[in-house]
Amino acid sequence: MVFIGGYMSELHNQRMKRREKLRKIKELGFDPFPTKWNYDYLPHEVHERYSSLDRGSLSERDIRCRVVGRIIAKRGHGKLIFIDVSSGKDKLQFFIRKNNLSAKEQALLKLLDIGDFIGAEGKVIRTKTGELSLEVFSLVIISKSLRPLPEKWHGLADVETRYRQRYIDILVSNEVRQIFDTRYKILFAIRSFLNDKGFIEVETPMLHTLATGAAAKPFVTHHNALDIDLYLRIAPELFLKRLVVGGFDKVYEIGRNFRNEGVSTKHNPEFTMLELYWAYKDYEDIMDFTQEIIVHVLEKVIGQKTVKFADLEIDFSTPWNRVSLKDSLIEMGGLNRKEIDSVESAKRICERLGLEIPEDYSYGEVLVALFEELVADKLVNPTFITLYPVEVSPLAKRDPYKSGFAQRFELYIGGMEIANAFSELNDPLEQANRFKEQLAKKKEGFPLDADYLRALEIGLPPTGGLGIGIDRLTMVLTGQISIREVILFPLLKPKQEEDLADIDGLI
RNA sequence: GAGCCGCUAGCUCAACAGGUAGAGCAGCAGACUCUUAAUCUGCGGGUUCUGGGUUCGAGUCCCAGGCGGCUCACCA
């Protein structure tokens, strides 16, 4: 027994008891950590196969099999013992008559804890209450758990522990497990949809020599052998368009972007983006396509047209509303057209609202600031906001009819920006000028990518491009209001010292 | 980075106004041949996040720090 400062902590109490049991299990001649144990079914597979059979026919058919799984509950009842065993899906009850086991197995039974993995050979039955069960004739341990799990009823509620020790969270919470299952299905549905449409999935570098493709602070790292600084990518955009130059007419990439910015319920420093490029299409085609993709995902994964999100209900019924940024300020922001006709009047609105903006903000930048203040939160049902100011869209093509605005849209759902897309700027001379303007403004995130300009000179066809934030899409589809609920291991400050103190006796 | 809130047994939570830190689950010992949040009897388990301070006395009040949650700002 281990004593700390005169006390034996409860943690040590329960952990030491389990280590003691481990030792006794070995003494009995069991290997508590065998390489494997051949089985016929996982617990949920027994349900899948035999749930249609009633008590009598199960008894008659005498189905013998071997089942493995993890103990999630134990109910002793004298010479009868009920053990719930799970492999993450439906649990199966092991029905054990002590008298059916050898003395050695009975000794093992006493040493089993919740969390242990076991294997059993037995007969599929229904108990008197009708529950499908395995009546156990022989029993082995296949992995020992040396720490107590959270309480069976309330589970793990401490948010910090849930994120830091996600292995426990997904082990004890079906709801949490479900979210990540859904996330996988969303990705699967997107991929199969795009693949069916003839898109190819590519992988471009995550280590960049220039942090381009978006306006964000990058993470910096260093390559020792080449002795150069590198940036974790903030966006794959320019690489993907190089591929369109090279003749990949329909490409996409799903992968991690890294942005060295604040953390919030809508932001994680690393997040997953779908970026897609489609040659010979423009932003309106991409708008149709975006709606198609998400509706497809909704049908395949969610199966209904509405989703609860916080205290709101999101209605995905099509067609989704399309409104220009400027019109949205009038229709949803409560402003009149005259108020946003010029920089001066628009800035006066900001003043009136108490919205602080930099002195040198351009007309377009003020419009975007007003949009974010007055409109964005209100866009609960999917809404396309179109025609963004050129100066905030350095990689997008100008709209030929709306001077000062680019052929760009953002998709808002649940008050969040979910997608961003445009007709790609493919005029190398104008692109060079836009880069120069960005540099002149000393905006971070737009170092001049000369090779990209060279690629444009080779020739980019008219192309529509799209980015969808997968984490946020998962949020709105699973009704989660914090991005950390849809990321398995969200970034938290480390607690290394506490962790080391907590594993004493192991190393 | 700023503001507000939180941190008590392995887990979920109590502790009125500053006055002996409790319960359920989990654990241990025992009873029980159809339970399923099993039940019943008994027992063990606490540096109340950390460090200072006020006080006869601090989980509770004050100060500093740590971590987390929410809101705001940068950003998708």
Average of the residue pLDDT scores: 92
Counting DSSP E segments of at least 2 residues, the number of strands comes to 18
Strand order of the largest sheet: 6-10-11-18-17-16-15-14
Ranges where pLDDT stays below 50 over 5 or more residues in a row are: 1-7
Q: Which class best fits the helix and strand makeup?
A: alpha+beta
Q: Distance N terminus to C terminus?
A: 17 Å
- Assign an overall shape: elongated
Estimated radius of gyration: 29 Å
As a percent range, the share of helical residues equals 25-40%
- Major sheet attributes: 8 strands, mixed
Strand content: 15-25%
Give the helix tally: 16
Structure description:
This protein is α+β, with helices and mostly antiparallel strands. It is 35% helix and 24% strand. The protein has helices at 10-27, 43-50, 55-61, 103-110, 159-164, 166-172, 174-196, 237-245, 283-302, 325-331, 343-353, 363-374, 428-440, 450-459, 470-478, 496-502; strands at residues 64-77, 80-86, 92-97, 117-126, 132-143, 200-201, 207-208, 220-223, 228-232, 250-258, 270-279, 306-309, 312-315, 321-324, 383-389, 405-413, 416-423, 463-469. It has an eight-stranded mixed β-sheet with strand order 6-10-11-18-17-16-15-14, sandwiched between helices. Strands 1-2-3-5-4 form a five-stranded mixed barrel. The longest helix is centred in the middle third of the chain and has 23 residues, at 174-196. The protein starts with 9 loop residues before the first helix and ends in a 5-residue tail after the last helix. The structure holds one RNA strand of 76 nucleotides.
